[in-house]
């Protein structure tokens, strides 16, 4: 009987020890889990960069899309830039006239409890106002008109009529090149005369160029005049005075003096 009681006591002690170990293990595991859960996330990193949607024209609305990020950002802040100058801090932006010819971009700041990271979009350019330049060729001759803008050959190279668009304020120089058998007659419209034609595109402009056909002499026909070469005068006939007569000397007619022959009487 005493032996049975001792066995029961040993069994109870073993069970208590096992339960204690299990409790300690549970406490240790829970502590590790709590420690792991308490570690803060890292600051966000960009995955796909922000981008701008919309048409970059005055009066139009541009939208800055934040892109995608790691670490689940809790907040996004936006900023718009014209060149390097900050102009607005919202997710959208209305383009204004002052933006013409400028680069517009947006910047996104993604934040969480560990910090913040910035990333910018690719810029978009707001175009300048454009104006048209029309060149019309007239006359009974032919030729080409070419253009040069900002020191480089540009869109106009035509023989009949052509139209090209340029940014506002662009300075365009036109050159007229007559074909063989033609002569340049002059400019009309936004230019005049026969010299160089240089225009500044602050509005739509039209320039006319006339070419006139030329005869073999080189002067234009139609509105121009032709000057014939003067005829070579005929030489006056040679007249010799008394006592001289005509005679060829070295192939040319000359007046030479006539010498009288003396007659000698024969003696009988």
Structure write-up:
Among the domains are: 46-125, Immunoglobulin-like (Sandwich), CATH 2.60.40.2700; 130-213, Immunoglobulin-like, CATH 2.60.40. 14% of the residues lie in helices and 44% in strands. The protein contains one helix and 20 strands. The strands form six sheets. Strands 5, 6, 8, 9 and 10 form a five-stranded antiparallel sheet that branches. It has a four-stranded mixed sheet with strand order 14-11-18-16, with no helix packed on it. The chain has a four-stranded antiparallel sheet with strand order 13-12-15-17, with no helix packed on it. The longest helix has 37 residues, at 2-38. It is rod-shaped, with a radius of gyration of 52 Å. Mean pLDDT is 80; it is low at 1-6, 19-36 and 221-230.
Key phrases:
Immunoglobulin-like; 20 strands; 268 residues; five-stranded antiparallel sheet; mainly beta; disordered N terminus; rod-shaped
CATH architectural category of one domain = Sandwich
Rough outline: rod-shaped
Q: Give a quick account of the main beta sheet: strands, pairing sense, barrel closure.
A: 5 strands, antiparallel
| Name given to the CATH homologous superfamily of one domain | Collagen-binding surface protein Cna, B-type domain
Q: How many strands in all?
A: 20
- Counted by DSSP, the helix tally is 1
* CATH topology title of one domain: Immunoglobulin-like
CATH class of one domain: Mainly Beta
Low-confidence sequence ranges: 1-6, 19-36, 221-230
* Percentage of residues assigned to helices: 10-25%
Spatial separation of the terminal alpha carbons: 225 Å
Strand content: 35-45%
């Amino acid at each position: 009987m005493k032996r049975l009681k001792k066995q029961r006591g040993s069994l109870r002690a073993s069970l208590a020890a096992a339960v204690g170990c299990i409790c300690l293990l549970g406490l240790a595991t829970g502590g590790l889990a709590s420690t792991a859960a308490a570690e803060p996330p890292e600051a966000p990193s960009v995955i796909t960069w922000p981008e701008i949607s919309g048409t970059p024209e005055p009066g139009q609305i541009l939208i800055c899309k934040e892109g995608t990020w790691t670490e689940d950002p809790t907040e996004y802040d936006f900023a718009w830039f014209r060149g390097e100058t900050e102009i607005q801090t919202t997710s959208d932006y209305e383009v204004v006239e002052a933006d013409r010819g400028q680069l517009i971009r947006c910047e996104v700041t993604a934040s969480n409890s560990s910090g913040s990271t910035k990333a910018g979009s690719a810029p978009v350019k707001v175009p300048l106002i454009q104006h048209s330049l029309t060149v019309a060729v007239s006359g009974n001759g032919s030729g080409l008109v070419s253009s040069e803008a900002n020191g480089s050959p540009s869109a106009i190279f035509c023989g009949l009529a052509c139209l090209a668009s340029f940014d506002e304020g662009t300075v365009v120089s036109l050159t007229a090149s007559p074909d063989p058998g033609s002569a340049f007659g002059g400019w009309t419209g936004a230019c005049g005369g026969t010299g160089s034609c240089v225009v500044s595109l602050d509005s739509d402009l039209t320039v006319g160029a006339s070419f006139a056909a030329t005869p073999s002499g080189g002067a234009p026909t139609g509105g121009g005049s032709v000057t014939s070469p003067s005829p070579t005068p005929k030489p006056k006939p040679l007249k010799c005075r008394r006592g001289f007569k005509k005679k060829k000397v070295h192939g040319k007619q000359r007046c030479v003096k006539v010498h009288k022959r003396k007659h000698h009487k024969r003696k009988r």
